[in-house]
Design brief:
Helix content: 25-40%
CATH architecture of the largest domain: 3-Layer(aba) Sandwich
CATH class of the largest domain: Alpha Beta
CATH superfamily of the largest domain: Rhodanese-like domain
Oligomer: single chain
Largest sheet: 5 strands, parallel
Length: about 290
């Protein structure tokens, strides 16, 4: 591993509490439930961190108009996401904190990754999310909120470029994954039973990409928070031999971003994301499938 000089991409409750009210700060609420796509919106409308705007995994952080080869949660195009950021009044110079219900996996890490992919440098994820914020009796906003975000931001800013640098974090496609060499370790963030192929509740085939290893995103956490940096460093070093590069995958490119967040927190440079992940891989029935450990 080549150590990164980046600060941690996480922020704690007290630090965010102290920054609330700063005119430049934007807070993004990314709560989402795969079983109920409107649950996050309802939760946001009921209560939220003061000043937050709402990011919906399907509508804002994905583009479902793309083909199945792009996975179940295809990445939005840069121009579309730039328009979303303009609607939230976020520029490349705007400090941003993102949170979801708790772990960061649904879908705060995805929002963090997308902002980093757009070239944003000052974006953090609230460690412990809304659950930890509530448990700490931190300030809450319950007045009616504009769930869609501000609608009056001029879209002309998009044509002007606005300083975004899409592609600032590395991605690969299925062909690159198939052709990867020994210097790459493909890490799958799904639960172990899905990786093994014992069950598959979401995609048409069970199993994993041949040669991948398994690091369930939940293993980055302890009691709803990220494990201490030295512990994460030791755990990830045990998975990644010297002189290898991690490429990250999951079911649809969402929880893989949680492993990216954990790696950057542990001191790795931003790893490479295979955004279509398992769902994109199995969209082509000719691609090989492995099962077991």
């Amino acid at each position: 591993m080549t150590a990164s000089n980046e600060p941690s991409p996480l922020v704690d409750i007290e630090t965010l509490r102290a920054r609330l009210g700063a005119p430049s700060l934007r807070v993004i609420d990314a709560r989402f439930d795969l079983a109920d796509a409107d649950a996050g919106r309802r939760a946001f409308a009921a209560s939220r961190i003061p000043g937050a705007v709402y990011a919906h995994l399907d509508d804002d952080l994905s583009d479902h108009a793309k083909p199945a080869s792009e996975g179940r949660h295809p990445l939005p195009d840069a121009d579309r996401f730039a328009a979303t950021l303009a609607r939230w009044r976020i520029t490349p110079a705007t400090p941003v904190v993102v949170y979801d219900g708790g772990s960061g996996a649904m879908a705060a890490a995805r929002a963090w990754w997308l902002l980093r992919w757009m070239g944003h440098a000052d974006v953090r994820v609230l460690d412990g999310g809304f659950a930890a914020w509530t448990a700490a009796s931190a300030p809450m906003e319950t007045a009616p909120a504009d769930v869609a975000g501000a609608a009056d931001e001029p879209w002309a800013r998009l044509a002007e470029g606005d300083g975004w640098r899409p592609g600032s974090t590395p991605t690969v496609d299925a062909d690159a994954v198939a052709a990867r060499g020994a210097s790459v370790v493909l890490v799958d963030a799904r639960a172990r039973e899905r990786f093994r192929g014992d069950v598959e509740p979401l995609d048409p085939k069970a199993g994993h990409i041949p040669g991948a290893i398994n690091r369930p995103f939940a293993e980055n956490l302890a009691a709803g928070r990220f494990k201490p940096r030295p512990q994460l460093q030791a755990e990830w070093r045990a998975l990644l031999p010297e002189d290898t590069a991690p490429w990250l995958s999951c079911g649809s490119g969402v929880t893989a971003c949680h492993n990216a967040l954990a790696l950057v927190h542990a001191g790795w440079p931003m790893p490479t994301l295979f955004a279509p992940s398992w769902s994109g891989w199995v969209s082509d029935p000719a691609r090989p499938v492995a099962t077991g450990d």
